Amino acid sequence: MMTHDNELNPLLRGARPQPLMLVISGPSGVGKDALLARLRECDEAFQFVVTATSRPPRPNEVDGVDYFFYDTAGFEALIAQNELVEWAEVYGHYKGIPKQSIRAGLDSGHNVILRIDVQGAATLKRLVPGAIQVFLAPGSMDELKQRLLGRGTESPEQFARRLTHAEREMAQVGAFDYVVFNRAERLDDAVAQIQAIIKAEQQRVRPRRIAL
Question: Using CB atoms within 10 A of its CB, is residue 183 exposed (0-12), middle (13-18) or buried (19+)?
Answer without folding.
Answer: middle
